[in-house]
Give the backbone structure.
Amino acid sequence: MKAPSTRTIVTALLVVVIPLGVLLASQIGTDRGAGELVGKPVPSFDLPVLDGGGARLSNVDLEGTTYLLNFWNDWCVPCRQEHPSLVEFHESHADDPNVRLIGIVRDENSLDDIREYVEREGVAWTVLLDPDGSAKVGFRTTGQPETFAVGPDGIVRDVHLGPATFVLLESMAAAAAAGVSS
């Protein structure tokens, strides 16, 4: 049997590569995830507060407030890397009633593990649970950590996927408070 010629190999590769290239190029700038929420009203949520004795927190409760929603989990390594930045952000705004940090546990593992993490790491901000996954679906999350900046007007102003730094969190909150979308 004769080996395929160079021309045959190149032609076969072009038949595969060109359509694939066209497909990928057509997807540039078409974010089908959380980024589509920027400039739009925050998705509705009404979630239980971890160890809140039945208390719940909703987007309606937060109207008029600038807030960062941070989707995370206790077993998530990038979430753990991000944690010191969240602590610093929370501490820098602890006395500011107009800015809040709220964690939403995505894909919760076990409540005991989450409670243990919150206690061990000194999580002082509000932690919400998403037992039915409605928030992660509504916010179109693809993993964790993911952070959403919401302005006092209830509009999502920025979205960040992956661990955020303190400087980035500050920037997101300031822009959201000013009504500026990324």
User: Anything to note?
Assistant: The chain has one domain: 34-177.
